[in-house]
């Protein structure tokens, strides 16, 4: 005897909501990061080099 499809509807709803919430969180993080992909495993070296690069860029553009 098979499983009636009515029993699977709540599972489909839960699975669908997990997918929707995951996609929404991904989109929000993408928008918060200025439209770029998120960075993973950012350590002290990466943070230091990024801040150094941004300081050099602002200093260079400020001088004209």
Automatic annotation (TrEMBL):
Keywords: Electron transport, Membrane, Mitochondrion, Mitochondrion inner membrane, Respiratory chain, Transmembrane, Transmembrane helix, Transport. Residues 40-49 have a biased composition (Basic and acidic residues). It holds the Pfam family MWFE. GO terms for cellular component: mitochondrial inner membrane. The chain crosses the membrane at residues 7-26. It is a single-pass membrane protein. It is found in: Mitochondrion inner membrane. Belongs to the complex I NDUFA1 subunit family. Accessory subunit of the mitochondrial membrane respiratory chain NADH dehydrogenase (Complex I), that is believed not to be involved in catalysis. Complex I functions in the transfer of electrons from NADH to the respiratory chain. The immediate electron acceptor for the enzyme is believed to be ubiquinone. PANTHER family: NADH DEHYDROGENASE [UBIQUINONE] 1 ALPHA SUBCOMPLEX SUBUNIT 1, NADH-UBIQUINONE OXIDOREDUCTASE MWFE SUBUNIT. This is NADH dehydrogenase [ubiquinone] 1 alpha subcomplex subunit 1.
């Amino acid at each position: 005897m098979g499983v009636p499809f009515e029993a699977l509807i709540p599972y489909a709803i839960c699975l669908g909501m997990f997918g929707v919430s995951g996609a929404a969180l991904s989109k929000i993080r993408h928008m918060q990061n200025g439209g770029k992909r998120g960075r993973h495993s950012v350590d002290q070296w990466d943070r230091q080099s990024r801040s150094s690069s941004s300081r050099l860029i602002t200093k260079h553009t400020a001088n004209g």
